[in-house]
Amino acid sequence: MVEKLFMGLLDIFRPITRLLPEVKKPDRAPPLTQRLLWTLACLLVFFILGQIFPIGSDPSKIAATFERLDILLGSSTGSLITAGIGPIVLSSIFLQLAVGAKLINLDMSDPENKKLFQGLQKMLAIVLALFEAAIFSFSGYIPIDAASPLFGSIFITQLLVMFQIALGAILLLYLDEVCQRYGIGSGISLFIAAGVSKAVFVGAFSFVSLSASGEPSGLIPRFIWNLINSAGSINTAVFSLVPIVFTILIFLIVVFAEGMKIELPLAYGRARGLGARYPIKFLYVSNIPVILASAVLLNIQLLGAVMAAPVAGQPDIKMGLFGTFQNNQPVDGFAYYINALPNPLLLGGYEQYLQIITQPNEIIHIFTYGIALILLCIIFGWFWIESTGMGASDVAKQLERSGLQIPGFRQDPRITQGILERYIPIITILGSIFVGLLAWFADITGALGTGTGILLTVGIVYRFYEELAQQQLFEMYPVLKSVVQ
After folding, report:
1. Are 204 and 220 spatial neighbours (Cβ–Cβ below 8 Å)?
2. Which residues pair with 325 in a beta bridge?
3. How far apart are CA 254 and CA 370, in angstroms?
4. In the chain, where are the structural domains located?
5. Quick one: pLDDT at residue 357?
6. Do domains 1-22+31-206 and 237-448 have the same CATH topology?
7. pLDDT band at 164, cuts 50/70/90?
8. Alpha carbon 178 to chain centroid, angstroms
9. Which end of the chain, N or C, is surrounded by fewer C-beta atoms within 10 Å?
10. Are strands 309-311 and 314-320 parallel, antiparallel or unpaired?
């Protein structure tokens, strides 16, 4: 019944998807130099959009940015790309889950069905862009210039700001298409990696002063400033480098974990002597669990702030079902205890941060956040492999269709499934726990770029390197391209 409903909707939306504009595919593959230039151009436009604020908004009144949200979604709160790649990612996840759960029956090997899927994804991304932009604009997360509203109306100003934020997200959607067809890799991955790299670089090297004393906000300039300033101390200077140490440590842990895998030997049933290996990586579900878990926790915070009502006489404080919010940031209640602590740099430094987290209330906060994050990672990790064809049963069928079997065992998908079930479920749970623990550890230690951001960036940079090496090889040996394709 549900499947028929979804297929009926497909027939309704099919003509609409054909009307959506798309980036024209190149007549022939651009050379590597042009691909690099297109990639850099997309990156430059992304950074420029992050510095443009919607007309009618008041950037000076943005109380706090959502560092984790900005990193996860490649966004910049308050700018045109406030929604970031959120609509694109969500639309992709929703449709992939619908196809994996057979709610939408599309054969992705059929070019027509694949084109329909891409059109549906684009249409859903545009709808989500408008929806998210409306939340940001009408909830007060993007302050409106109430002193001189556009056309003399607060409502019209909020409406225009909403359309500008939605336009920014749609521009990122088409930049992603440009990057995929003319550049290298995915625009989505590029924007995430760029956002994380910017957060790490600015956090480490910024000379901008955020205090009356003139102390730089960047950790390395702050370290030098504390060493040479008479008011500074060795302890304070050393503490300023702690987040950098944890950033490097987490980066090394992720690099090590990316290389951990179990390789099952495989053989071709009809060709003796030929074989292959099926790698089951420790991070089998990659970063998907922690992305979805972090998105859920952040959306609870956002929803709680939207539903909360202002306290009489205190316009910056709101109370609601999910707790108390000050300047749209949770300070007590359910939303507070399941979200990460503020970055140590926003709390006056690491010494001040250590004093805060040793309080009984904050110890409870740290552990409730960690438990919520890890449990959600396990749930989403398991759900993801079962709904996207990565479970033992689906992998066994894929191997059978390819004519592969495990040496020493009869070529039967049930036998292959039994062997895979010894590894995939355990690896899925352990990998989900690992990424959840690492993200939690990075958050409570104040690592630059957050643990989720570092996890994403390591994988993105590695895949970018692989594709760059492949394109370079194709240019040197053009015959290889026809063989691979």
Report:
1. yes
2. 318, 330
3. 19
4. 1-22+31-206, 237-448
5. 77
6. yes
7. very high
8. 20
9. N
10. antiparallel
The rounded distance, in Å, linking the Cα atoms of 450 and 271 is: 49
d(CA 2, CA 347): 50
pLDDT band with cut points at 50, 70 and 90 for residue 170: very high
| Backbone angles phi and psi of 318, in degrees to 5 | -130, 150
Closest CA to 14 of 125, 93, 120: 120
Q: What is the pLDDT, as a whole number, of residue 484?
A: 43
269, with CB counted inside 10 A (0-12, 13-18, 19+), is middle
Q: Which CATH architecture has domain 1-22+31-206?
A: Orthogonal Bundle (1.10)
Rounded to whole angstroms, the Cα distance separating 302 from 369 reads 16
DSSP characters for 84-150?
Answer: TTHHHHHHHHHHHHHHHTTSS---TTSHHHHHHHHHHHHHHHHHHHHHHHHHHHHTTSS-B-TTS-G
pLDDT grade, residue 137 (50/70/90)? confident
Question: What distance in Å separates the CA atoms of residue 77 and residue 478, rounded to the nearest whole number?
Answer: 44
pLDDT digits (tens, 9 = 90+) for 39-59: 999 999 999 998 899 988 877
| Measured distance CA(270)–CA(342) in Å, rounded | 59
Please check whether residue 306 is in contact with residue 347, taking contact to mean a CB–CB distance below 8 angstroms. no
Reading the block at residue 345, the tokens are: 């740099």
Report residue 126 as tokens. 């545009």
CA 191/CA 172 separation, integer angstroms: 9
Structure tokens at 316: 């910056």
* Sheet hosting strand 275-281, strand order edge to edge: 275-281, 261-268, 404-405
H or E segment at 152?
A: none
CA distances from 300 to 19, 193, 293, 307, 321 (A): 35, 25, 11, 10, 11
**What pLDDT score was predicted for residue 346?**
61
Q: Which of 233, 246, 160, 194 is nearest to 76 (CA)?
A: 194
Measured CA to CA, the distance from residue 348 to residue 233 in angstroms comes to 15
413: enclosing H helix or E strand: helix 413-420
Please give the model's pTM, rounded to 2 decimal places.
0.76
Q: Give CA–CA dist 378/476, Å, rounded.
A: 44
At residue 74, what is the residue type?
Answer: G
State the Cα torsion 233-238-243-244 to the nearest 10°.
130
* Count of residues in the chain: 485
At the topology level of CATH, where does 237-448 sit? Preprotein translocase SecY subunit (1.10.3370)
